[in-house]
Amino acid sequence: MAGRAVGGWTLSRRGLLATAATSLLAACGRDEGTGIRRPENPELVIGVNLELTGVGRFMGLLQERSLRIMADTLNETQVPVGNLRRTIRLVIRDNKSDPRVAADQTDELATRENAHAIVGGCLAETSLRIIPAAQQQQVPFISFAAADNLTTPLSERTYIYKLAPDARDMARALAGLIRSQGLERVGLLAAAGAHGDSGVRAVTAALESTDRTLVATARLPRTEGADCGPAAGRVVAEFPEAVIIWGTSPFSAAAARALRETGYTGGIFFDAGAVTEDTLSDQNSEAVEGSYAVHPISLSGSSLTNTTTAGLARRDFVYRYLHEHGSFSGFAPYGADAVRLIADAARLGKSVDRGRIRAYLATQVVEGIAGAYSFSPIRHGGMAADFLGVFTVSSGAWSRVS
């Protein structure tokens, strides 16, 4: 058999084939003790579909930071999945706060990028367009939006989960706070779209249950920079003692400014969607000083005395966030929790198969960075109500009241 001289060595054709096969096996690697071939750098691919520009940017940019911090943290030891340790790879796309773009990017992440799961959708409208695409591609999707119809009807949302608190729980907390302050007449300024729809339903029911009177409801404009004055004027004309603003940044703070510009001096109460850096910015600080918000307790950061596993994880996350970004935002931890939930589902299912990740997400009962989640086959969303707190703006910062 003819040989070939290579660097002073003469290899036969059979020897060349054997050498090539050995090199291929070395490149692929083997699981110790099993002899099963595996890729050298196995990954857990998480598609990220976020509002990094456009009206949802105040929330989307926070989630991008959080996602990166948690992925980096888990990658220090990698994620054990079956007999492999996988590296988390984030594939990040900016949906520009455009629902149509969000839907297209979901298809791309699921097909071209072969994402094992997708996270994102800080706005209800973008999440609602991601959902049918995720369902069709059968890829698990964890939403950061708060609208109640994201995970219902469950028969049409089998791959869909959400982390934000339920509107019902936030509304009950706000109504209880208003009652505790002896306020009777309440106005409501609600965002346009699904988030505001959830708020109107939940606030109406919560005020009725606490014997408060809803004197007026007005919807905020859909377009950033549009005048909130007419909506604020309609509510103030009914002489409320308290006004609930149910929306997301930057609309929430714009509504607060509009209320103050009418001469309204009563209490302002926000849902969790208002809690971003924009709400406390210089242009909004005077209008929102003394206002209240219901938000997951993560807004208060991490207690140094909390030595539970969840408490230590929360403290480590806050430290890393402060180290990288200088200040901590309580809205940010949803992204960290989403990465951890997906990693845990893959670990428990011993697979990155999308169907198994979906199934094991439905068994998660955990305390995360933002709060506690209790998923089940018949419940795919909503933070536990016990992990909501009441906060007030004091000297330009959020301070916990209860």
UniProtKB/TrEMBL annotation:
Q: Does the keyword Signal apply?
A: yes
Ranges where the Leucine-binding protein domain occurs: 45-381
| One Pfam family it belongs to | Peripla_BP_6
Q: Does the keyword RNA-binding apply?
A: no
Q: Which UniProt keywords apply?
A: Signal
Q: Which domain of life is it from?
A: Bacteria
Which InterPro entries does its entry note? BCAA_transport, Leu-bd, Peripla_BP_I
Q: Which family does it belong to?
A: Belongs to the leucine-binding protein family.
**What protein am I looking at?**
ABC transporter substrate-binding protein
